Amino acid sequence: MTFAAEYRNKLKTALDSVDLNQVERLIEVFRKARDEDRQIFVCGNGGSAATANHLACDIVKGASYGRDRRFRIMALSEQIPTMTAYANDVGYEAVFAEQLENFAREGDVLLVLSGSGNSANIVKALETARRKGCFTVALTGRGGGKAGPMADLNINIAEDHMGRIEDAHMVVTHMVGYHFMDTEV
Known about the structure:
Elements: H1 3-16, H2 20-35, E1 39-44, H3 47-62, E2 72-75, H4 80-89, H5 97-103, E3 109-114, H6 120-131, E4 135-141, H7 147-150, E5 153-157, H8 162-183
Parallel strand pairs: 1-2, 1-3, 3-4, 4-5
Helix pairs in contact: 1-8, 2-8, 3-8, 5-6
C-alpha cells in the first residue's frame, strides 16, 4: 500500500471517530450564540490557529453575508501584534487568556482547537473563559489532554497523528460553517 493510500485509510478511520451528536450540539451552540448576539472566540496554535482563523472567515463571510442574522466571531489567533506583545512581556501562555479578559462576557462562547489538548495557552484560555461564564468547546485529538475534560463540550478525534487530527478538525469546522451556509439561507 502506498503512503497516500495508507494515510487516506487512516484518515477515514479518524473521521469515523467523530461523534456527530457532539457536532450537532456544536451547531446548536453556534446558533444560540448568533440568535442571542453573543460573541464567539476561537483560537489554536500552529495548524490549529490556521483552522481557527479559517472557521472565523467562513462564519463571518459565508454564514453571515447578506443575512439578517449575523455571527459575532473573532479568531484570537489572528491578533498578531497583541499575541506577540503578551508573549514577549508576559509569556506565551497568556496570549489568548488576556484577550479574553478584555473581550469575553458571560454567555459568550470559546472554541479552542488543540491536537494534544495540553498547550498551556489553550488551557489558560479555557480557565479564563470558564471563570468569566463562557460556554467552552474543545476540538482535541489523542486522549483530549487537559483541555478536553475542562470544556463544556469536547469533540475528540481518536487519533495520534497530528496531521489526521488537524484534517478531522477542519472537517468538523466545515460541518458547522456549512450547516449555516447551506441550510439556513
